[in-house]
Amino acid sequence: MSKSMDGLAEKLFGSSLLHMLKSLFRILSVGPIPNHIAFILDGNRRYAKKQNMAVSNGYRAGFMAVMSMLKYCYVLGVKYMTIYAFSIDNFKRRPEEVQYLMDLMLEKIEGLLHKESVVNQYGVRVHFVGNLKLLSEPVRVAAEKAMEATANNTNSTLLICVAYSSTDEIVHAVQASCHEKWNEIQELNANQLQNVEITKEIQELNQIIKLVDIERHMYMRLAPDPDMLIRTSGETRLSNFLLWQTTSCLLYSPKVLFPEIGLRHLIWAVLHFQRQYPHLEKKKQL
């Protein structure tokens, strides 16, 4: 298995780059490696302006950066990678920009279905996170097909947050928990009418919504909480992203625009995580 994975990595990276990556990985693996890294893709439009190109090309450059980060995270041993691709608030942008983003998203999602795509070569499971009913039907259907096609991939997981905001996720989880609890209460009442013995303790317990109930209905329930969140452009705001999941998460904010992010930025981020790791673990135990 190891030889086949090495062969795949060499095919994707080339022998020289693969050798460099392995050397870096050996150094980094002395310390802890984040299990889950989340990214806020900040700076695509500013990159386009900086390069004097169309905004659409800035977004395409950002997609290429996502694919590069996916490869690097895979080689470094990061099991989960989450990207903030499109927030609910982004629907407020100019209609032509929103339409272009939807068209680009559809194009790239369909590309993930190809046998030779990066996610299939790496064995990456793709999961779309958010209020998917807000997407246009072609994009939503393509997302569902991509999730179904990669459902059996187990090497790592790519979570793509689209039509997402953390407040929407929390509201959705609370509403779903209330609906579920209401159904349980109705079932208890029906059993009582059928003279099924139900203790007062059981009835009271089943009327309480617990933390585990809410977390079970979160959009992000598929993945553990992120260990580190990287937001490019030097911004330190969460912008309504993973507010529930980032209680003990390290925020790293390189000044580079997202399309410019590369291996060295990821290496520095992991080193920063390793320096802060003892403090982060102590905080989790409090």
UniProtKB/TrEMBL annotation:
Identify its protein family: Belongs to the UPP synthase family.
A GO molecular function assigned to this protein is:
magnesium ion binding
A Pfam family found in this protein is Prenyltransf
The top EC class, named as a word, is transferase
Species of provenance? Nicotiana attenuata
Q: What is this protein called?
A: Alkyl transferase
Keyword Amino-acid biosynthesis included in the entry's annotation:
no
Q: Name one GO cellular component term.
A: endoplasmic reticulum
List GO BP terms, alphabetically.
polyprenol biosynthetic process
Keywords from the UniProt entry? Membrane, Transferase, Transmembrane, Transmembrane helix
Q: Which domain of life is it from?
A: Eukaryota
